[in-house]
Design goal:
Layout (H helix, E strand, L loop, with lengths): L1 E9 L12 E9 L8 H9 L4 E6 L5 H12 L3 E7 L5 H12 L3 E5 L8 E5 L3 E5 L10 E7 L1 H18 L18 H10 L3 H5 L6 H9 L10 H8 L7 H11 L6
Parallel strand pairs: 3-4, 4-5
Antiparallel strand pairs: 1-2, 2-8, 3-6, 6-7, 7-8
Amino acid sequence: MIRRIAVVVIALLSLSGAVAGAPCNVEVLFASPSAESSFEQRIIDEIDAASEQLLIAMYSFTHDELGAAVIRAHRRGVDVYVLLDQSQGGPDAALERSKLEAEGIATAVEQRAGTLHHKFVVIDQQKVITGSYDWSEGADFENIAIMECAEVALLYVDEFTRIANDLLGLGWFELIVPTASVPGDPCLECLALLNSSTQEDFAECPGVDTHLACRLETYIPYYVYYCSRAAIETVLLGVPGVELDLATAIIDCICEGLFE
């Protein structure tokens, strides 16, 4: 049988400077070895309820019914993106992957075998299903957690985006949550200034040489989920060669006076 534990937690997250604290609903399921101990139907139900986006990062994805649910979501207009580990290159895995690709679903494989051990799906950037369970058959003892919490979901979106874009260079930038435009918001004005800066603009900032200025321009556009100075500092830290003091200096240089 499946043992269920439902809890409500208070999210204590940094999340690029966001102020957390909203209750998050978490359901934890443990399965034992029996005919009724699979999680498939519950996961299928959650996928079938998706309306906007599915981000799937799986070490193994060989389950036909789960694959069929993902394809149904894609066919009804849900944006679906799938990351898989290269070690899942056997006939069964390749067959499932080929079905997704044949449907036009954005699918990519981490080419270093055994590297991608993630086992999560983000649904509509509001809900995460993760745990020990691969999307395959055969294991006896498994667990999943179903977390309905936007703050947590955005952390997983960020990790998915990091793998897809920073590590694999896929250019899946549409995964990023658009930042709402608020006229007169100094943070968004600063972000806009950074994203419109040229190599020459960055080179005028203290501590930025020609090579780093080029790199800073290459990394444009910069995105944040919830705009704050700390959030902008965090994305700048993603540029090789930028430390915290330098990120602070770049913001002071490009966004002079906005945060005073």
